[in-house]
Amino acid sequence: MNILVTGGAGYIGSHTVKMLNKMGKNVVVYDNLVKGHRAAVKCPNFVEGDIFDSEKLEWTIKNYNIDSVVHFAAYSLVGESMEKPQMYYYNNVQGTLNLLDVMLKNNVKKLVFSSTAAVYGEPERVPITEDISKNPTNVYGKTKLIMENAMEDYSRSYGLKYIALRYFNACGADVEGDIGEDHSPETHLIPLVLQTCLGKRESIKIFGDDYNTKDGTCVRDYIHVNDLAEAHILALEALYEGRDSNVYNLGNGNGFTVKEIIEAAEEVTGINIKKEIAPRRAGDPAVLIASSDKIKRELNWNPKFTDIKKIIETAWRWHKNHPNGYGDK
Ligand code: UFG
């Protein structure tokens, strides 16, 4: 296996790269460092490059004898995607189409693709299985769904073999504490709550407490980043075994409200967090809970972090020791 990881300096990418490298796999990270961090790359091979730079991509594929790609490089903020759709369609759709062109030209036909629970929109039922209708409520989810559809067509016409992984809410950090979550701007609930614990923010805003849920706040399915990383490795192995293209959800199957997450963080940190009720955020579905039975059944995926406090503990260790993240942005 010679694996190219685009976006391997980002949050989920860097955790996957570290795990692949530890397993002794040949990994090359390809990242333009616009969002990613050089210090997050825990493998020897790094190419600073953009997915629009066809020549550099082709050089990387040839130079490292690449035979599969894990494609993380994308913009992934729901709110931002509503304000800047052009940026999201350009990067996530056109950029990925360009990557696919270069892959096919060089006969690289195995791809693990980062998709998202945002493809479902307001789900017709929970827990969400892969087959329910997809009506994304935000541009980010739309861009990922467009690419899933394109890959399905490429799979049929050009022999591309892909596995799309629909992540629910990625969170936590590697237990060794050397890599973690560092977005700028940060918009995700758990890092914002922990930054509030560190006194870096005045308070945490709860976006809406009038949803039809047990305490009125949104319910999400929080999944540890290393459990996600493991799923990518299983997906790669499945492709090398010659399995067909497929799509899988990745979540814990448990839902937590925003208020429950804040309470769990208070227990883990021992710090009382100041909360404010704020208006709903555009594009937020009320409840997103995954059924991950399909990937458990077909690829033997077995998430190890099932306790939300244990998950938050790993994130807390990272944030406490890296209050400014990687310190490069
Ligand atoms: N939230 C707050 N206050 C904040 C930040 C978030 O109340 O300051 C709430 C949100 O409204 C939401 C929940 O906390 O109800 C989780 O929000 P995040 O921003 O952490 O995550 P999202 O659920 O919006 O999105 C994440 C990923 C997406 C992915 C989605 C799938 O960022 O890429 O999970 O479930 F599509």
Description:
39% of the residues lie in helices and 17% in strands. It has 329 residues and is an alpha/beta fold. It has a domain at 2-171 and 221-250: NAD(P)-binding Rossmann-like Domain (Rossmann fold). Strand 1 (2-6), helix 1 and strand 2 form a beta-alpha-beta unit. The two termini are 33 Å apart. The mean pLDDT is 97. Residues 76, 78, 116-118, 168-169, 187-189, 192, 204-207, 218, 220, 258, 281, 284, 288 line the site of uridine-5'-diphosphate-4-deoxy-4-fluoro-alpha-D-galactose.
Name of the CATH superfamily of the domain at 2-171 and 221-250: NAD(P)-binding Rossmann-like Domain
As laid out across the biggest beta sheet, the strand order is 3-2-1-4-5-6-11
* Class computed from helices, strands and strand pairing: alpha/beta
Name given to the CATH architecture of the domain at 2-171 and 221-250: 3-Layer(aba) Sandwich
CATH class group of the domain at 2-171 and 221-250: Alpha Beta
CATH topology label of the domain at 2-171 and 221-250: Rossmann fold
Overall outline? globular
- What gap, in angstroms, lies between the N and C termini? 33 Å
Low-confidence stretches: none
Secondary structure: number of strands: 13
**Chain-averaged pLDDT:** 97
What is the helical fraction, as a range of percent? Answer: 25-40%
Main sheet makeup: 7 strands, parallel
Order of helices and strands: EHEEHEHHEHEEHEEEHEEHEHH
The value of Rg in angstroms is 19 Å
Number of helices: 10
Strand residues, percent: 15-25%
Bound molecules: uridine-5'-diphosphate-4-deoxy-4-fluoro-alpha-D-galactose
EC number: 5.1.3.2
Family: Belongs to the NAD(P)-dependent epimerase/dehydratase family.
Domain NAD-dependent epimerase/dehydratase: 3-251
Pathway: Carbohydrate metabolism; galactose metabolism
